[in-house]
Amino acid sequence: MKPLNTLPGSFMNMLRADVDMRLKALIFLLVAAALLSGCATNTAAPAPPTRHDVARSIEKVELIYNQEDQLIVTDGGGSGLTGFAGFLGPLAALVAISVDTNSRLTMAARTDQRSKEFTAAVKNSGVTMGLNRQFAERLAARLRDSGREVKLTPFLRATGEHAQMQVQELQPTPGYSTLILRITTSYGAADATSSFKPYVWVEQLLRDEKQSVVGQTLQVADVSEPTYLLYDGLLKDTAGAREGLKRGLDQIVQPAYVSLFGEDEPRKASAAAVTQTAGIDTK
Question: CA distances (Å), 197 to each of 84, 187, 221, 245, 276, in order?
Fold first, then answer.
């Protein structure tokens, strides 16, 4: 007796096609996330180590950051039907796979749409935005605490590979070293069964007065709350979702400073800093 062929050729071809489409969909997601975060998709050369000795000697820093909060929402899942359709028989499973795959193929468009939608929802809810500004101000304050003079420059989001980040139309201030920040705040779900979680990271690129690279670092926040099972839940809890992103950025301030400038060494504060401190009302 011939063994029963439970997987006919046409069905196997459908499965192979589905796998191929899922791989393509995954590539689309990675490309979309890279484009939204301003990172290049090609492989960059290994970054040179940060020269802490040079960074420590820097006295004047122009801190440039992307002023506009862009709250990115990435969703690696599909329709969410595939896992349940198996209980309804093979035909329902095939239909669910098709729906799921088609959904995954629109990930780039869905990421763009949901990012704009979520950002607008936070703005329109009355919740204070300014996440990027608050982070930049806290990092600037940390730099000033070390005795450095800091100029804050809100601008466009930097583009290009991390090691070669550029801010279009920006003219660096003469006499200042340049610290470019690329701040990314997002929520993401890896697949249809995963919840949306906060993902926060900050890329830094430090250049000296002659615009030679001194160092670059990437700081990623360790936050896991709040989480949202569905996108609608994220969209409705704008205050809680923003607070989760803020906590992530708050975590990064000190590590971002140390990663470039190292731990503080005893140094003489500038005259401006001494004057400013002396003028503070201590009442």
Answer: 23, 5, 12, 10, 42
Under DSSP, is residue 258 helix (H, G, I), strand (E, B) or coil? Answer: helix
Q: pTM to 2 decimals?
A: 0.70
Give the contacts of 188 (CB within 8 A, at least 6 positions apart). 72, 73, 74, 75, 76, 196, 197, 199
Distances (CA, A) of 177 to 140, 151, 183, 245, 255: 13, 10, 19, 29, 20
- Identify the segments of the chain with pLDDT beneath 50: 1-32, 34-45, 78-101, 104-105, 268-283
Residue 226, preceding peptide bond in cis (omega within 30° of 0): yes
Q: E-strand spans in 91-236?
A: 149-155, 177-189, 197-207, 213-220
Closest C-alpha among 67, 57, 55 to residue 205: 55
Per the CB < 8 A criterion, the answer to whether 74 and 189 are in contact is yes
Half-sphere exposure of 163 (CA within 13 A, CB side): 9
Measured CA to CA, the distance from residue 194 to residue 80 in angstroms comes to 10
Q: What residue has token string 């960059």?
A: 44
Coil vs helix vs strand at 65: strand
